[in-house]
Amino acid sequence: MEKYKSGLTGKNFVVDEPKFEFEKPVFKEKIDLPLCSEVETAKKYLEGRGIDPSKFYYAEKFKAFANTYQNVFADTNYEESRIVIPLFYNQNLIGFQGRSLGPSKVKYITVMLNDDAPKIYGYDSIRKELPVYVVEGPFDSTFIDNSIALCGADGNLRCLEGSSVVLVYDNEPRNREIVSRIGNSIGRGDRVVIWPRDIVEKDINDMVLAGINVKSVIESNTYSGLEAKVKFTEWKKV
């Protein structure tokens, strides 16, 4: 009624959908799990990879944990422990990934609590006025300043429109999927990193463990346009 009195219901105005306020469960606002730094198994695994264990959580029973948010798993008889990677967007928890600690048929399990939010790790930590580096995985992003990770093949970067984006793919010239994605990115005119031929490590984490100054390599091997096509052709021949 207040909108009618204010004259905001004409054809040139949009009346907001009614909003119903419900008390949100606590578990929807945060992740109620121990940090990996507090669990010896997870701490040892991450520190062995040079990753800060205080950035991630640990779920002893990942399926049961996921089901406290929504009914993801109908069968929880076969449980497994996983590292939990939180996904925040504009300070809201919009999903999480479960990363296996050992051999598993499914290395990553992504659970989205908001299907309209981007599947991105690290979004709230970046400065969009600076170059934003988009890497393959959340763990890799912890080694590169101002970087994010896409958490799924269906992720998109619309939330970064207007930013200077650099795509950093894994160093796997024999991987058809990665080769195709890099080729498509170059075709769109994106800025991409083409790794030098003397680097044999497959991803950023492995490069860091090998003592490589990854940020320096990235900055000196970012290309676009014709130059990217030439470097890409050379890289594929490895």
Can you give the helix content as a percent range? 25-40%
Which CATH class of the largest domain? Alpha Beta
Rough outline = globular
> Based on the structure given, which CATH architecture of the largest domain is correct?
3-Layer(aba) Sandwich
The CATH topology of the largest domain is: Dna Topoisomerase Vi A Subunit, Chain: A, domain 2
Q: How large is the share of residues in beta strands?
A: 15-25%
User: Strand arrangement, largest sheet?
Assistant: 5-7-6-8-9-10
For the largest beta-sheet, the strand count, sense and barrel status come to: 6 strands, mixed
Tell me the total number of β-strands.
Answer: 10
Count of folded domains: 2
Q: Between the first and last Cα atoms, what is the distance in angstroms?
A: 69 Å
Along the chain, the helix and strand elements come as HHEHEEEEEHEEHEHHEH
DSSP summary: helix tally: 8
Which residue ranges are poorly predicted, with pLDDT under 50 across at least 5 consecutive positions? Answer: 1-28
| Gyration radius over CA | 21 Å
Give me the secondary-structure topology.
Elements (H helix, E strand, L loop, with lengths): L1 H4 L34 H9 L8 E3 L2 H6 L14 E8 L2 E9 L7 E5 L7 E2 L10 E4 L2 H4 L5 E4 L14 E3 L8 H12 L3 E3 L10 H6 L4 H7 L1 E2 L1 H12 L2
Parallel strand pairs: 6-7, 6-8, 8-9
Antiparallel strand pairs: 1-2, 2-3, 3-4, 5-7, 9-10
Helix pairs in contact: 5-8
Walk me through this protein's architecture.
The protein is of the alpha/beta class and 238 residues long. The protein has two domains: 26-115, DNA primase, catalytic core, N-terminal domain (DNA primase DNAg catalytic core, N-terminal domain, Alpha-Beta Complex); 118-238, Dna Topoisomerase Vi A Subunit, Chain: A, domain 2. It has eight helices and ten strands. It has helices spanning 2-5, 40-48, 62-67, 138-141, 176-187, 204-209, 214-220, 225-236, and strands at 57-59, 82-89, 92-100, 108-112, 120-121, 132-135, 147-150, 165-167, 191-193, 222-223. The strands form two sheets. The chain has a six-stranded mixed sheet. The radius of gyration is 21 Å and the shape is globular. Mean pLDDT is 87; it is low at 1-28.
